[in-house]
Design goal:
The protein is mainly alpha-helical. It contains eleven helices and no strands. The chain folds into two domains: 4-30 and 128-224, Cytochrome Bc1 Complex, Chain D, domain 2; 49-122, Cytochrome c-like domain (Cytochrome Bc1 Complex, Chain D, domain 2), CATH 1.10.760. Helix content is 57%, strand content 0%. Helix 2 packs across helix 6 (111-122), helix 7 (133-145) packs across helix 11 (212-224) and helix 9 (179-191) packs antiparallel against helix 11 (212-224). 41% of the residues are buried. It binds heme C (2 copies). One heme C is lined by residues 18, 75, 142, 152-153, 155, 157-159, 170-172, 174, 177, 182, 185-186, 194, 196-197, 199-200, 202-203, 206, 218.
Length: 226
């Protein structure tokens, strides 16, 4: 009992902090949703998916047809929340998220291009993946409930029970994403190499508490999550 209670309290404190930050985002984006009844989020208002489809031709070589990449190092973009995709393209263009390939891809894009591309990929169905059995055994509990002992919050609190994310808050879809890509990103967050903006800081803090084994298991688990 005495070992369980402090953990529970820490878990509850964590859950309150999460609720606060999530509701702050919800309040901000609520206005946009009411006003436009369109993709919500502070910085994302005007994407045209039809225009984005034409502009996405150049992306298919790596991200696959309709954003369902077949290569494990290249992320799937299909079904990703538009505000998140838009924010990442902007971060690549501004050099805040470092990746030579994507910085070159984003450099020529206008703000409208990024909004249109984000709207297009958000409207495409995400292709599911598969998790290894061993990964599920380690990662499922962590994903759903976190680990009060090591201070890891429940991933589901932000990324949702099926990994669909929270588009309005800019919390990305992780369900179905390639394991290799997930491992690379979680490792980059943990090293502090990926931390652009307030949202990047959030994930940096989460990943700092994960072990190599947990990262590997979570990466595969997310691939199978739907
Ligand atoms: C030559 C291959 C290549 C092409 C072409 C390419 N990308 Fe990428 N893209 C990548 C790689 C590799 C990454 C992973 C970068 C990293 O590890 O940070 C990535 C990451 C991304 C991400 C971040 C995804 C996430 O989940 O955070 C977005 C968004 C993205 N690309 C959009 C685009 C768009 C839009 C285009 C077309 C205009 C495009 N990409 C063209 C290789 C490519
Ligand atoms: C408090 C909310 C929150 C929690 C809890 C959280 N995440 Fe995240 N996660 C985010 C946000 C926000 C981002 C986008 C950060 C950015 O802009 O770089 C993100 C990004 C990611 C990405 C990169 C997605 C991509 O396409 O590049 C992965 C993978 C991820 N999270 C996995 C996890 C896992 C696994 C856990 C649980 C151990 C977790 N997250 C817990 C909010 C959260």
């Amino acid at each position: 009992m005495s070992t369980v209670v402090p953990g529970l309290i820490r878990g509850l404190i964590g859950a309150c902090a999460l609720t606060l930050s999530v509701s702050a985002f919800a309040a901000e984006s609520g206005h946009a949703a009411e006003a436009a009844h369109a993709p919500a989020g502070p910085a994302f208002l005007k994407g045209d998916a039809k225009a984005g489809e034409t502009k996405a031709g150049a992306c298919a070589a790596c991200h696959g047809p309709a954003g369902n990449s077949a290569m494990p190092a290249w992320p799937k973009l299909a079904g990703q929340g538009a505000p998140y995709t838009y924010a990442q393209l902007k971060a690549f263009k501004e050099g805040k998220r470092a990746n030579p390939i994507m910085q070159a891809q984003a450099a020529p894009l206008s703000d409208q291009d990024m909004q249109d591309l984000a709207a297009y990929f958000a409207a495409q169905p995400a292709a599911p993946g598969v998790a290894s059995k061993d990964a599920v055994a380690v990662a499922e509990k962590l994903y759903r409930a976190g680990n009060a002992e090591s201070g890891v919050p429940a991933c589901a609190a932000c990324h949702g029970p099926t990994g669909a994310g929270n588009p309005a808050a800019g919390y990305p879809r992780v369900g179905g994403q390639h394991a290799d890509y997930n491992t690379a990103q979680l490792t980059a967050y943990r090293k502090g190499e990926r931390k652009a903006g307030a949202n990047g800081q959030i994930m940096s803090e989460v990943a700092a508490k994960l072990t190599d084994e947990e990262i590997a298991a979570l990466a595969s688990y997310l691939n199978g999550l739907r």
